[in-house]
Specification:
homodimer, 9 strands, two-stranded antiparallel sheet
Chain lengths: 221, 221
């Protein structure tokens, strides 16, 4: 059952995190459809793929301002474009990364982030052995320079892959440098001024939740 | 105001994901207290640090079965131990990792995961250039061997760091090998039997949400 309808072309504010998280997943599914030569799609088909009710899919897509047609549904190409535009993948966010360990190195080398408009322009560390070295083409700079450089280059986005014990101090330097949004991979709650946007990526908590469920749902043979 | 009270020593089932995610964060804060020589803590102090109301903290800690004392609060050491036991950090989960790219390499080298009971025992890839190489002391094996080896070694946990286009096929092989819980870093919803435990770590969605908020909350200078 296709329940796509004409909707307003105006993107609505007040989108939930859950919806924001689903849009890139819709986008991925849509690109697989496009690659298979499929040009039209309904909310029910997307919902089926995503384990979502069609009403939820329609609500999410509404935020991007895209217009579905009754019976024929959405144009796949138009939907892909609308999601990319809405999520700002066509703009570039220059970012600083602090903590050039294993995870930092992985993020520096993750080429697909550029598809989402992320360009990590510099990496910072406090380890004298790392400073001056090059990781995926980016020179590692001393963390003391972060704030000044961020200000000079008008950097808005900071990524923290430093160990937990340095994370707060790194965040403080980022904020002093005018950074407005932080993607934090350190397993602690940072103390931040209310205007700073924070996205926590707590791998320890995820792993703990997973192990806990595994231990309780199954007995080890 | 300390509102710690005597509670049952029986861990309660039905814990929410949000609580499961907070416990490792409490744990981190508690270890910093321990390192500073502090032996007693109240729910209000933890709440203050975590931006949580004390009632929420007490509810979360209840799940671990720990007993707080009226007025004096909790013993820091006991609380640390209770959280570790509850989350199963004292047990070891052997895991297979599929996708030996940048992110897979980072996870293979992340020594602190062992504190949480995770031991990644083998890495798999389909790239002939990677197969046979050693990453952080683990030899990369051909992904075709994953299912059989998982079965033989009774592996319960699988980590997917393969690109999205291979993720479903890797998940299918994991399940064929008897793996029961999957930590998925690929940006798509995997189709899994209902008994499989899944934890999605969608960096693309996180980054998109962050960029979206940054674009809307601030004007770029």
């Amino acid at each position: 059952m296709s329940i796509d309808i004409q909707i307003s072309n105006t993107a609505v504010s007040g989108i939930s995190d859950a919806s924001l998280f689903r849009l890139p997943q819709y986008h991925y599914f849509l690109t697989t459809l496009r690659d298979r030569g499929i040009t039209k799609v309904s909310c029910s088909l997307i919902g089926q793929e995503m384990n979502c009710i069609p009403v939820q899919v329609r609500k999410d897509l509404q935020f991007t301002g895209v217009v579905g047609k009754p019976k024929t549904g959405y144009s796949v190409a138009e939907l892909i474009h609308s999601i990319e535009t809405f999520l700002g993948w066509n703009n570039t966010n220059q970012a600083f990364l602090a903590g050039a360990g294993n995870l930092g190195t992985a993020l520096l080398g993750h080429e697909r982030f550029t598809n989402l408009g992320l360009r990590i322009v510099a990496a910072f560390d406090s380890d004298p052995l790392k400073i001056g070295s090059s990781i995926h083409g980016k020179t590692v700079l001393p963390v003391e320079c972060l704030a000044e450089l961020a200000q000079r280059m008008s950097i808005q986005l900071g990524i923290i892959t430093a160990p937990a014990e340095y994370a707060q101090s790194v965040a403080d330097q980022m904020i002093r440098g005018g950074i407005r949004a932080i993607w934090n991979f350190a397993p602690l709650r940072l103390k931040l001024p209310p205007h700073i946007i924070i996205q926590n990526e707590d791998l320890y908590s995820s792993l703990s939740a997973l192990s806990w469920k595994l231990a309780r749902c199954f007995r080890t043979p």
